[in-house]
Design goal:
The protein has 109 residues and is mainly α. The protein has a single domain, classed as SMc04008-like (SMc04008-like fold), CATH 1.10.3340.10. It contains six helices and no strands. It is globular.
């Protein structure tokens, strides 16, 4: 395996571990501050695998990111979004010129 790819994979695992240690940071907060969240990592995993001709189930990708089934993570750690958080997210969606999909219904369910 190419050393650069090994390093990138290790950094990604470290980022996921950091997010796992910071379960108090809500996905909507990540979206509002950085424009991505844990769900994005899951969706990007599926999309990048697809480009390589590999099928990855979204639920399996989410479990890799969250360290548990997504439904369980939501139940244990996801708080209801505040009106301010939702307004901020909607404002960002309207202003976004990127091709990033802001289909993040799971943030506000």
């Amino acid at each position: 395996m190419n050393k650069e790819i090994e390093i990138q994979a290790a950094v990604f695992r470290r980022l996921l571990a950091h997010l796992d240690d910071r379960k108090d940071v809500q996905n909507i907060e990540l979206m509002n501050l950085a424009g991505f969240c844990r769900n994005c990592f899951s969706k990007w995993t599926v999309a990048e695998a697809e480009k390589l001709g590999v099928t990855v189930d979204i639920d399996i990708a989410r479990e890799q990111v969250y360290g548990m089934p997504y439904s369980e993570w939501k139940e244990k750690h996801q708080l209801p979004a505040t009106e301010e958080q939702l307004e901020n997210l909607m404002s960002q969606i309207k202003q976004s010129n990127s091709s990033h999909s802001f289909a993040h219904n799971e943030l506000v369910e």
